[in-house]
Amino acid sequence: MISTTELVRELIYQIRLGEDSAYEFKAITVQGSRVTKPHSDGIADELAAFANASGGILVLGVNDKTREVEGITHVDLDTVEQWLTNLASQLIDPPLPIETRLVEIPDQQGEAKPVVWVRVNKSLFVHRSPAGYVHRVGSSKRAMSPDLLARLFQQRSMARLIRFDEQWVPGASRDAIDPELKARFLRGNLPEALQLKKLYLLREDENQQPGLTVTGVLLLTRRPAEFLSSAYVQCVAYSGTERNADYQLDAQDCDGPVDEQIQQAFSFVKRNMRTEAVKRPGRIDIPQYDLGAVYEAVVNAVAHRDYAMHGARIRLHLFADRLEISTPGGLPNSLTVDSMDANSISRNETLVNLLSRYYPADPSTRRQNMIERRGEGVPTIIGASERLSLRRPRYEQTDNTELKLTIYAASRESNGLLAHFVEDEDRTDD
């Protein structure tokens, strides 16, 4: 648990910045033994919104408009804590567990004022509050659309039972299996169905008949999108820096089993990216992108996307100055954009496991397996790309529904290989 000193330091910093997707501030008024402001329903909505998204912190005793620390009198702290406990259990369905701490932070005059710090974790359930089903988007709460709500119920119910990628896909019977695609998984004389079940490629459906799981559809069928809407990669290359159909150079929908999608998307980038040549006096090839980083980025997008999101495809867009890969689904579990290069969490654990065991990488990447499973994917993307273009790639998350990676192109003007060569040349001259 974070120490009180660290917590106070964090709160002072966050209050200065204001509210965001993870922090909500509220001033509070207590009259007698009753909290009169804010309304209980509103706070229940805020707590449920955090739980239905990625979790967050509510701080009572800080004005959200002025960012001033107004505090709560010591005699009212127990009243406020009891009020919070009651509304979390009585106004939210299912009841929401919360963690509270009492801390003192300085106001603008430097006087220590008590506040109530409330942490809400991302829940395994979908919670209903007085406003209905709401979730946190940026610094505010919003009602969830029917489609988003249905998907969230599915995701969280499966998280409590089985992994989503091991779930049976309606309509995907054994007849959809391609004989060539299943061959790599079969060993010895064990029955085929038993082997595929052990790998979670098959699961019994509601009629106790073996049907394909999500992973089975993605690896064993020629057209996964027939069963999982938009399970493909859309690739588009533009001559300029904006999305404009008049300047479209190339386009391809990469479908087929996911290993082929990865190879097709990777080949699309290789085919459309530029390689310049500089003579100093020998020839130096300057590629726009590090191919190892591009391959890792494409593999990550296909392996870790949210396949429960219907109608949402992976979008790989190549511009004159950058490569953008937009992946359906927010970051899994407690992973954040800031922690991606230090932590590794798989959304589709079964799919990732099989891609790492049974599928070789593209020979040009100088790696053995399609997924290495060393937790070095994001650091590789960032490090290799930054060394080449001298610009750090950027990850952005949109409303917990999409993750976008931008890799900046190298050029004559900004190129790590050329800069390194020039430094060596200068040292030689000296």
Automatic annotation (TrEMBL):
InterPro entries: RecG_C_sf, Schlafen_AlbA_2_dom, Schlafen_AlbA_2_dom_sf. Keywords: ATP-binding, Nucleotide-binding. The keyword Transcription regulation does not apply. Residues 19-145 form the Schlafen AlbA-2 domain. One of its GO terms (molecular function) is ATP binding. Pfam families: HATPase_c_4, SLFN_AlbA_2. This is ATP-binding protein. It comes from Pseudomonas solani.
